[in-house]
Amino acid sequence: MLEVDPPLTKDGNGTVASPWRLGVDLGGLLSDAAGMGLRWDKSLEKLNVCLSRDTGNSLRFGADGCLYAPGGDTPVPEVCARPIESLPETGVVAAEALAGLHGPYSSPQQLEYCLAHQFDIIGFKVATSSDDVGVVADYWSHRITTGRTSLYVTQDIRQMNTSTIKSVYNYAGDTDDPVSYNQGDGNVDRGDRRGGWWGWLAPRYYQPLVAEFLDRIDGKSVALLECAPDPDLASYPEATAIIGAIRAVLQYCAQSWAMIGVRELESAQSVAGAGITPVMMPLRPESWGETGLPYPVADLTGAGVEWIILSHRYDDTVHAAYRDAGITVLLWGDSRHVTRARAEALGLRGGYGLDPLYYRGGIPGGSRYGYRTEYDPWEHRRVGTGQLTHRTDQGNVLSSGGYVRGRTEESEQGLILPAGFGADIGRASVLVGWECPLTNPDSYTITWDMKWNTLAEDSSARAKMGLLFGAETDAGPYAWPDDPEVNPSGFPTGQVTLYRAFQRQSGEIGLAKWPAPGASIEYLATASSPSVAAGFYNSYELVVAPDQITFTRTLTDGTQYSVTTGDSQYRGPYFWIEKEETFYGRPANRFAGKFRNITYLPSN
Predict the structure, then answer these.
(1) DSSP 8-state symbol, 372
(2) What mean pLDDT is predicted for residues 134-144?
């Protein structure tokens, strides 16, 4: 018998399966210990500073969540301005393309999303119109396309005047238009883009100008105007692209809270000459682990460049070379927590990515990883926080067939992993990031529904779906092969120190693991069950305990089949949904699958 007194807590019964767990009730501890000026907030479960409500008190919280006392040598600001110099020394969180994993790259609604989450830096692409006005663009080509707008001919922004651009309507989908864009539909009726933003709901909008975005940001975040068009795609030079950006920043007197991203050193000097902070943004290198520097360090320091955004494909030595020269480095990465850890280990200023909320891991003033109260975004036909794949790791977000991160459809909730997802390479999967890291990775239950929309031709082959789980990090598990034709960039193979719970099309269910990097898969438990029939959901349950794992399939008639293992090697907090079709180098074995109602429940 174990007895404890408050504020201590206990859980378990002292057995091997349920050992004693001692804890502390923070509310009971801190509410009694809080002295003058402190107060325990029961609803937030936070120890907060207590601000007096007495008449005349001017002490308040600043935009960074810290105490702010107006006065001194500076006037009281009309807004909580966040100039460049106020950015944190470490842990800067920067949103690439308006946090483009969640919405169109030029969407005003995405700007509101970024402001609401108080990202330190908000990045968006900028082009210049024919009448020298800055325009928010979607792509590095600096074009507006007919595929998703009311424009009749795809056109370079530089070749259109501002009145034409402001009349362009983006068919990004809306609440009455949740239909997925099906590959092969072609250029359907111009009045209805069949789901617009590739089947993911997003409000429609008119093409915004840079001035509109700066007016809305108004110093509440640092604006990064990306004016570095891809030289292989854009039809006019970077020197022209920066004209509208410089004009807009000066128009709004935003020099203290706006930066302009460029690729060419001459452009950086032009930006600096206008009294604006330039940021170097070299192209991603073709190869993983690139050790060549995109610019000589002396060239940047000699030109007074103080900021650079570098792809995570560069070797650590490249990042370190600029860091050691006193240049502020942001890691342009894949938004994963493991990449955030890399930036921290290298001593870089922060990270730049398409899913900055997941990358950051929480909300200022709220709980760390506060996004984990999100529930099944696919029932709303929306993208989930941390919905990352091997394709998003490469900066890809859109594909008509759903090959980047699956797709939704109008008829029912859930995520479709289409035929061909993963391109016949192992461990093709989608991170269930909005549930990760799990609050109790040693003891939990995950339930979900899963069905084959279509059947693979060969049921005895690799065709399977299920979960990958138990990983210590969220590094992608995709099994990149050592083949320059399939993997020309030389991406390293994904992590394998995790478990697999699988359902084969043939009916076999099982639990497996990779016991070490480079090792072959080890099957821990398998069982026969009826073969899969297309078009019918089955329910699945994964129960993880400290000394046991049980995986169960439940048929539509309630019949259950289970496998169990006592293996305890991995108890990490990250998991993915997975679909495999065949082995790399073997004939294609296509089928489409679907997941819905993914739910995580901690045992405690």
Answers:
(1) G
(2) 91
